[in-house]
Amino acid sequence: MADGFRKPIKMRVDVLALFPEILAPALKTGILKRVQDADKLIVNLHNLRDWATDKHKSVDDYPYGGGAGMILKPEPIFAAIAALNPETNAHVIYLTPQGIPLTQGVVESLSLESHLILLCGRYKGVDERVRHRLVTTEVSIGDYVLSGGEIAALVLIDAIGRVLPGALGDYESAHVDSFSHELLDHPHYTRPVEFADSGVPEVLLSGHHENIEKWRYAEALKRTAKCRPDLLQKLELSEEDVEILKAAGLME
Ligand code: 6GU
After folding, report:
1. What is the average per-residue pLDDT within 14-34?
2. 98 burial class (0-12, 13-18, 19+ CB within 10 angstroms)?
3. What pLDDT is recorded for position 181?
4. In the prediction, which pLDDT does 234 show?
5. How far is the CA of 101 from the centre of ligand 1 (A)?
6. Pick from 7-16, 75-84, 226-235: least confident
7. What's the pLDDT score for residue 171?
8. Which end of the chain has fewer CB atoms surrounding its CB within 10 Å, N or C?
9. Mean pLDDT of 134-147
């Protein structure tokens, strides 16, 4: 978790989905491409239909008890996971709105695994026996409903991929940025120094590194208080923190 300076190992991810092609373009781009080229991450996309057993290649069926919507049948999922995970030591993650909320802590903890299988639901989800017998962890990416788990799986792979060694210019920069330190990021400026009638804070031009770090910390703290007071409530504020927030009128 946030003790996360242990070096993550090379990771294999198998995605099991009805529409795995949704993930393909993003996996060929940017940091996700780089981390795969560096052989730190291997992502295999699999179509659940490849394990369908009947001649119509069906992967879903009607719910017992009636009602709207289809359920993903257990047999193809059991067969797929047996094939992808013969040693049964992979972490099987089912992407579903009922899962644990995805946070940076969950990402960093999962980034230490060597083999993840990401099972993406569609329709009304999977037969309950899949959850009971196969799934290790259920993960949700937020309180809204997606049409399927594929995009959620991509979100998870992206978040994990960027904290693997070889993903960013330097490994540590993944661990010092927004949320890893439990505060939102401070503001950033680049050239030009005057733009749209607005300048760059003087301290950033001063070359005084200690003052710059102090300013950045105070801005991150104030931004978190303004935008995400819920995050701030989980932290223990120092006396200095309280001073900063009071001076900004963000605390009584
Ligand atoms: Cl993981 N799946 C679906 N279908 N909807 C979601 C989700 C996952 N996380 C939030 N909404």
Report:
1. 98
2. exposed
3. 75
4. 93
5. 10
6. 7-16
7. 45
8. C
9. 97
Q: Would you give the DSSP letter of residue 170?
A: S
Tokens read off for 199: 């300048």
CA of 247 relative to ligand 1 center, distance in Å: 41
Q: Which residue shows structure tokens 């050239």?
A: 191
Here the tokens at position 149 are 């788990």
Ligand 1 pocket test, pick from 93, 94, 95, 144 with the greatest ligand atom count within 8 Å of Cβ, gives: 95
Cα(13)–Cα(40) distance, rounded to whole angstroms? 11
Q: Give me the torsion for CA of 21, 23, 29, 35, rounded to 10°.
A: -120
CA of 49 to the centre of ligand 1 (A): 21
DSSP 9-21: --EEEEEEES-GG
**What's the chain's length in residues?**
252
Top mutation candidate among 140, 156, 157, 158 for ligand 1, by most atoms within 8 Å of CB? 140
Residue 86 tokens read as 């013969």
Residue 175 has pLDDT above 60, yes or no: no
